[in-house]
Batch of 4 targets.
Target 1
Amino acid sequence: MIPARPRRVLVVDNDPDFRDSVALLLQARGYTVFATGNRFEAMALATRERVHVAVLDVRMENDPDRDDTSGLTLARQLDPLIVKIVVTAYPSVPVVRGSYNVAFKFVGKDELPGGLLEALAQAYASEVKMNFDLSIRWEGIQAEEVAHHIELGDKPAPDIMKAEIEELLCKLFHDADEIVISPLIPANRVHSSSSSPSGAVVLKVQPRERGGRAAPVVVKLAGREMIEVEDRNYNQYVEGYLDGYRHTLLKERARTHLLGGIIYSLVGTPLEECLDFGTFYIQQTAHEILRALDDLFTKTCRHWYENRETKQDYDLVELYAQPLKLTITRLENALHGAGLDAWAGDTHPLVPELKRPIANPIEWFRRHPKLITQVALAPTHGDLHSQNILLDPGHKAWLIDFYRSGPGHLFRDLIELEADIKFVLLDVADLPSLQVFEQALLSTRHFDDMPTLPTFRNDELRKAFEVIQGLRQMAGRLAGGRRAEMRDYYQGLLLQSLAMICLRHVAVPKKRHAYLAASMLCQRLDNWH
């Protein structure tokens, strides 16, 4: 039996007798009620508590004053998500009649109690749209884990986060009887996690409705503002570009007091038969991986890159570091947190495995607060790591998670995917081998140069090298010239490599690799003539 989920109502009226009688009436009907006679206390309550509907008096400060509309002022100040019902003894007053866009309903005090109860029922049915009887089952993941991984500025207590998540799911699946929630990425995959580098959580949800089981869908849960940004980005940069080909459909969106959620479905392919790119990468050969990536960049994303601008001077630090929240302070804190204090403070830290000091890329970044370079901008996914690419049974690529989608460096998506392959999927920690690996990758000046493949004893290094070299050739085709130089690709890759050091889901050995790669990129760029 599902415990009753409370319908939460805020009652604000300066008449204590009237306020108490309304509160008692609603409590008797099963509502959870928060009551106050002060609009400032009302704002504090609405900020602190999850409130669905606010029942407000028009005249909260001076009942005889026909000009007192403090209740309407409060209605405008409250979170737009809260549905407002205004109760007044003066429904014919012109100022009230002219404010019908402020509230969902105006109810005369002479219509109580029936008018208020009817307005509340209508508000919950048409505006709140929350499935209070939804059965939620967790398989392979727990609500506590989801609550832990969602990043918020001022994160509330775990029990409040769990209640917010449950309420959000009840809104997203307002027509379902039951949902079964599981990780989108297999829990047994090395380095897998339901959390996103952006502080969101992505899940697979199987709804069950009255007619039987519906198709599973992808659900993203995050801070409310993040979801609102993603919703706008989807409408502006995704719907018109990916529509009709590997179309990721945004089916539903919902918000709670703190959180937001989006439901995505993949039009034309069963989600249950899809793999995330990380799992696909582990299972497939370099040849098959490159075939899938070529399909991704030449077909799924082609309308993005076809809408590129002509080259102009841009600051690559602004294009990369700002969206990734890359700062000197954040880099140094990340290295301290990883136990790499000397790497943060020394100009040329000594790395014992390499038997010699290396350049500190943070110092290089400090000396180069701007990287003005002539580049082309295009619509991009903006967060193209292995968890945001799904492969169907035919190895065709589909995209999810569009929080960072928008205009960016033409090579932005390829650079992020290269960094994800090197610093997340590549399971090699031996720095001398990684130094050889990076040196070979940095030996090229033009996209169509073919570096000599080193003799790697490690098959993972060989596979990663072949995939990355293939990625760079795809970037060269986007560049549109056989001898296009890679300088801005290396600059973007340097900033992306530094950003990987700051990500909490990147393990310490991989942060060491990212630091080494960034150091070598700095030397390569300093020697560019």
Note: The radius of gyration is 27 Å.
Target 2
Amino acid sequence: MTQFPVINKAADSRFTCDVDWRHQRGQALPSDLVEEAAGRLGVLALIYATTYFFAYFVSGSIALENQGLVHFLFVDGVSRLVWGAILSALVVFGISRSGRIPPDRMLDIGLLFLIFGSLGISGPTFWGIYPDAGPEFAHNRAFVGVPWDCVWILIFPVIIPNCPVKTLLAALLAASMAPIVTSLSIMAGATNPNIGHLFFWRYFAFTNYICAMLAWFGSSYIHKLGSNLVQAREIGAYKLQTKLGFGGMGEIWLAEHRLLARPSAIKIISPEILGSTLKVRTEAMARFEVEAQATASLNSPHTIRIFDFGHTPEFSFFYVMELLSGIGLDTLVNKYGPQPPERVVFLLRQVCHSLQDAHVNGMVHRDIKPSNIFLCRVGQDYDYIKVLDFGLVKSSSDEPYQDTSFTNPHITAGTPGFLSPEIALARTDVDGRSDLYSLGCVAYWLLTGVPVFEGESPVETAAMHLKDAPMPPTRRSEFTISHQLETIILDLLSKDPADRPATADELDRRLSECVLENVWNGDSARQWWEINQPV
């Protein structure tokens, strides 16, 4: 087994800012954090527009008591600048919600908003300040306080991080808006020219520009944390990019091989799942290695491929899988409803191919359920089945029973709605017919949209698998199910394994002999995908 460290510092640690956010090549901030920051930009823009409208126009309108209100709202030059700032914020909000611009480009738009937002704040603050000040003003009176645009310059890079170089340039331009407005105000005569430009520029040097440098420092720190996070998300030759999902055993990430640029999925088993002590974790790690090797040895094209596996120094076990494009059978039924019998047979036969390969190699899946059967598009093949997650697989040999699922209290073997009676009884003589029972539950679900048994608790559901007779699917399905297909499903749901089909091959043969009203083939699948586009 190959052991991989969590952090791989062999790669060049330098980075640039103009990169493809989807692949993170050289970008310090991970793509999921960039997406979150882009989402926050829209919220910040909306807060800016709302707050500024109430702070300037509403309070100003009340103070005027309807005297010169129209001039204040629409004619006054400063008010028009404020309107422009508010409208620009609303535009940024709209763009962020449209989803048409990549998140990294949204962050660049955010820097433009930082500059124009600072101009919108500086306009009403510094235009026309001290119009009647005398020549002695600059010598006898200090201009004190921190302008509001400093607050804007400081908080923006923290909420919306970006490349430090870009942030510094944008912060300096944003800091320059107040002195530029003041200088223009002096030149226009709105501010008494006796005060002089130098007085204000000296003041802004100790407020706005210091805040701009602090903003750059904060941005650099956040970017460094992002760079460290990217390194921490490197497992051997793979770079973790986006979290695809998570469950009771850990997380699944979209990853990319450093050299091959091949997208993959990495499942990371969290250390807590493996056990609380070093000894227990080491033993659990060994079992996971055996399971990963077993899955990797399977040859059926309908079983998900395992490319690599290993563990980190922190005892997080991981394995690298092929990246699939499609949906689980649970999503298929939940989104599109029960499926016609001809399609169900088409899908079940592919699952049989995967299970037969596992069973003849002495392995039992033990957790066949809709979410572990993936409906894919592979090249030009549609409705292509991949059986996932052999994490609960065990040998069907006579060796002492050592299964990860039962040696750790955090993991439940099987899923109550699709649990075979023998697994519910925790029997040690479980063989491939247990998977066939679960597959019968899957077939029932596909045809009817409801589980075979549904108790008020997992324990009650498991008990129903032990003692209750299933209601025939013809009584719960909207489709016409042939007697032949219904008989197969009810045989699969037999309490006694001896009454079920003996092997997945036998089940496949019986399914192939089913007489169906309609035909489902590759053309039917392609037409369905072209209409529904589930990917």
Note: Residues 65 and 90 are 28 Å apart (CA to CA).
Target 3
Amino acid sequence: MPVRALRPFCIRLWRLALLAAAVLVIRHAVQSRDALEAAAALAPERLRDFFPDIQSLGEANPANGWRPALDAAGQTMGYVTTTAPESDRIIGYSGPSRCLLVFDLKGVLTGIRLLKSHDTTDHVAEVVADRAFFRQFKGLKPGTLPEQPLHMVTGATLTSAAIAQGVMEKLGRAAGTSLRFPEEITLEEVQRLEPTAQNLLPSAQHRGGFDVLDAAGKKIGIAVRTSPTADTVVGYKGPSDTLMLLSADGTTLNRMALRRSYDTKRYVAYVTGDDYFLNLFNQSSLERLADLDFKEAKIEGVSGATETSWAVAEGLKQRARSLLEAQPTGWLRQIRWRWQDTGHGAVLISALLMALTRLRGIAWLRHAHHLGLVVYGGFMAGELLSQGLLTGWAAHGTPWKSAPGLLLLGVVALLGPVFSGKQLYCHHICAHGALQQLLARRVSFANRWQVPPRLDRWLSRLPFALLGLVFVSVSLGLGLDLNAMEPFDAYIFQVAGTASIVLAVVGLVASLFQPLAYCKYGCPTGALFKMLRFTGTGDRLGLRDWLAAALLGIVAVLA
């Protein structure tokens, strides 16, 4: 292939490589800082509002991450943990959030505090201001669910949903342990049900369970227990913990045995001495157990210990249900499709038609497209691409599960300029750009005003300087409020900050005199897409490419 033909391909690879390297630098820098902040968040002096007499924290429980809060005498006053690492992979709008969880001695959640959020500042502020949002989690225990559907914060739905999911997943992980029945499953008790068992390893398939291995290291079963899922199921006097030996694939209950019970000893003895009851559920699939109707199946309790045996059976049923709910699903089933994602898909189709066909030459249709972008993309959905959003994705990953349509817009915005040479997002998708186009030259005397050429050249460099400032700030942790640098949050007026609103108004007024004034002279997000744009065989590496590479190298060394 001739060198001239390879040139466009190499330039595209070079620019994509710069983008990928910038993402890696941001991710490494942000995650390194997060690790240090996470350790500092659990310092005893920062927990005195929950435990006034705290002197130290004990070692973390390897099963659930809980750390005991200890007083001067070494007595446990309660437990603390954070929603990390479970919450680190739950992306809200632009990033994950981490919360402190405080439990009393009975394992009841008594306090919650937002420690760190990488979501946009305006969305986070809206969640913090909603006291009812955090209050709804208090009183929960591991393995339990709120009595009412979780309340999400209007105007910050993705952010609050991610925080809530992090809390609930942490409680779900803790459901593998129990403060009421703290004793872990032992090899000896498993061998009573399966004599060939020789070793136990933590199960990757069922949380809180153990893979049962024979002498050859072959997996022959999975051992789980009903606690703490069934800790609230009380028989005659108290709850019971039952060992469940599942098949090797984890789908069938092979055998069961009562481990420990707070019920009356005599009633417990009746249950443990009834071989018929103890073998009644053998070879039952988890699906059958989870939906089992005791009366319909004519399952009777142990004579003389009906309530105790009923509690054991109900515990098996609830644990089977929880095991089924925790089973992994395909990636398609993990996606939560929203009405906004359908709207983003429609916007994308409309944008492609306007960009790649002659429809853009029809004035009324072009204006209708722009008006639709402003109404839907700006004021209804309120999900515009910004530096706060894109750098959050770079640092922590994308919200492909919770906001797939928004992610698709981001992919098109980044790759469209590379492969089509067109600014698809800026010209045909961005609500703020659309509103500027609708306002362009709408004032009669504005048509006579022009930006002087020298000033135009200097102002045109400002977006690229701002883009570099964003990269430096995020990588080095300078704390710059990225959302205050752009006007996009102004469309979500109920959460917008003053800076975003001022920028939006100033940019729109300027667009009356200079078409797309903000896009040309102030938008760092547009500058990123412009850097990726490729205009054909005549394109070449320029000063911006080399400056970007130099800045990337310097920051990579400092970060």
Note: The longest helix spans residues 3-41.
Target 4
Amino acid sequence: MQDITKGVRAFTIGTAISRVLGLVRESVFAYLFGAGMTTDAFNAAFRIPNLFRDLFAETALSAAFIPALTSAKQKGKEQQNLLASNVFNVLVIVVGTIVVLGIIFSPYIVKIIAFGFGTVPNKLNLTATLTAVIFPFLLFIAFAAWAMGYLNTEQEFFIPSLAPAFFNILSIATPIILYMYLVKHGVDPIFGMAIGVTIGGLMQFLIQIPRLYKKGFRYRFYINFKDPSFKKIITLFIPVAMGLAASRINVTVDIFLVSLLAERSMTWLNYAFRIMHLPLGLFGIAVGTVALPTISKYVTQKKHAEAKAILFDSLKLVFFLTISSAAIIAFLSYPITRLIYERGKFTPYDTYATTQALILYIIGIPFVAGIRNVAAVFYAYRDAKTPMYASFVAVAVNIVLNLLLMRIIGFRAFPLSTTISSFVNLAILFYYLPRKVGRFKFLPLVKYFVLLAIAACTAGLFAMLINDFLVSTIGLTFFEQILNLLISGSIGLAIFYSLCLILGLDEAKDFLKRLVKR
């Protein structure tokens, strides 16, 4: 059985750089703009083209593209490049058309999706203009995801995972450089962020081109909708896209509902969501991304026992990584949020509100990561309908919970509903999993999960107590906060690892050895 930890390590290192820079970007954003009308407008505008991102730039494209490209690779490099070129050219046509229409109709889209913004003067107009500026980002990020899919089939994970770092660098530099220029010319400086993310999306694609050519890709001007391999992609893409369409409808409903709540609610949720995506990207997405081409290869070769073994190895690995990181971040959520955001226009009250959302989001990380890994098996077996149906149910649960809870607990309803619906989604996938990989013992995996959670929560509690002690003895300057978190977080991880060994979780020792070996 192929060991996926080498690919996970490469992906995690690249993603770590990207995610840290992403948090720097959010910190700069918080410093320059704080939380208010303009930040709500930008976050809503950024989310609108992102409604299509999972379809053409990440999940659906990867789920359909990688298994088909893996099969084409078995027939030779020419077939692989023809299929890749075919998909790229179709993306230019389809996504390019969506971008043009999105720019033209952005005022009407915003009026529907962010209806509640209409109660604040000029908020809808600002959101619509920002949306038009940001929409080309969708095309560039689709190209970047296509490049990542090609490189992943070549077992190249570091450069694709590092590429978002260049997106973040441009997103950081552009608003800083343009801030005073825009102010002097009477333009809201929030447009610097919009320009930055658009240019950053382009750079995320361009940085992967040299590696593509080194791996043997040669572009062909080739469009063939009747190509058998392309038909396989469409066959898999459509149900995945339908499932994601349901989740995108859910995001649209969320934007609509949050726009009805108190000002700054959308901004608090966005800040919390960005922190949550650090461990999710480092570990959850990393393991799922590396596992998909490996499982697809074994399924293509009809090595079903190996595919099943990779699945459960990846699940145990992703739970080990995400449960530990999620618990420690949850217990240290307030000092983490304070360190990243609380300066400039971002107030202590904003820190408090963002922390509440972060805790509720972070609890769901193991479930979201598990979905990505289990769904990879269904995609490898060319079954996208089951994940689609699971997504439909989860979205329905999420919307109902939001409607029931938002008037009771306000913006907190949205991260809580996301966590609960993610658990429901994963449970449905596990229920149907034996139809793909055969019967397996489920209770040992549940026991493993529970023991990890006990060890992680205990470690997180100690980390929080240690951080509180360090704050009272060392201080709260910026570098003192970093030192406090590094010490308390490191001790927390050491306690977690020790407790895993005490509880008989021998996998901890195996995973650590595999992750650090060269």
Note: Residues 66 and 149 are 6 Å apart (CA to CA).
